[in-house]
Amino acid sequence: MASLSPLIDQKRRAAEAAVAEIEPGMLVGLGTGSTAAFAIAALGRRVAGGLAVRAVATSLATEAAAVAAGIAMLDFADVAAVDLVIDGADEVDPALRAIKGAGGALLREKIVAESAGRMLCIIDDSKRVSQLGRGPLPVEVLPFARRFVTDRLAALGCEPVLRVRAGAPVLSDQGNLLIDCRFGPIDAPAALADQLAALPGVMGHGLFLREIDFLFCGGELRQERDR
Ligand SMILES: O=C[C@H](O)[C@H](O)[C@H](O)COP(=O)(O)O
């Protein structure tokens, strides 16, 4: 797997560049996934060096990693807003619209992103796409509504596949199912987001169309959203 190492290095450099934006006293949202893990490690080093910040996690896995890194954590249930959130993505298009959720944390990630003054997205080059839909769009579904929602998702034009690991459905941190929807190229992501949000039983979806403010790819700030 030697060919993967440049991308892993890009993740690390993107994460470190984003963590350099954190200022003393900030309340920081910590994303989930392999790229966010580099950010947690980098923030842990800054905290060990004396930086006073507090953070909230977008998943139980991130919470555990952040505590292990020595970062002071708050329960997001007690928090209305964070100063910034640093998180990865599965796909990002030129307008900084993204698909997230391959790690199953999309719902908490979207809530924390919505609460954030700024969202810093950290990726490697492999995540840049000309159009969203190269891979599946994760949808979080209430188990009670599994069959109903699966049929409605198919009617929207995708191939819905229940996420399974070792023969059992993968559950989100909330105990919900994850359905990965292959739409192919998504021509109208905002309309699709509205359709998904209107489906009872859909608890969240991985389209992040307006949350990202800054994109770090590798060690550089590559792009700031036009507002
Ligand atoms: O649910 C998972 C998240 O949306 C991740 O941020 C996303 O899948 C990117 O993860 P990674 O940095 O491991 O590619």
For the structure shown, list the relevant keywords:
single chain, 227 residues, alpha/beta, Rossmann fold, Alpha-Beta Plaits, 2 domains, 7-stranded mixed sheet, 4-stranded antiparallel sheet, 16 strands, globular, binds ribose-5-phosphate
- How are helices and strands ordered from N to C? HEHEHEEEEHEEHEEEEHEEEE
Number of beta-strand segments: 16
Structurally, how many domains make up the residues?
A: 2
Structural class, from secondary structure content? Answer: alpha/beta
Q: Write out the distinct hetero groups bound to the structure.
A: ribose-5-phosphate
Assign the CATH class of the largest domain. Alpha Beta
For the sheet with most strands, the description reads: 7 strands, mixed
Do you know the CATH architecture of the largest domain?
Answer: 3-Layer(aba) Sandwich
Widest sheet, order of strands: 3-2-1-4-7-15-16
Subunit structure: Homodimer.
EC number: 5.3.1.6
Function: Catalyzes the reversible conversion of ribose-5-phosphate to ribulose 5-phosphate.
Pathway: Carbohydrate degradation; pentose phosphate pathway; D-ribose 5-phosphate from D-ribulose 5-phosphate (non-oxidative stage): step 1/1
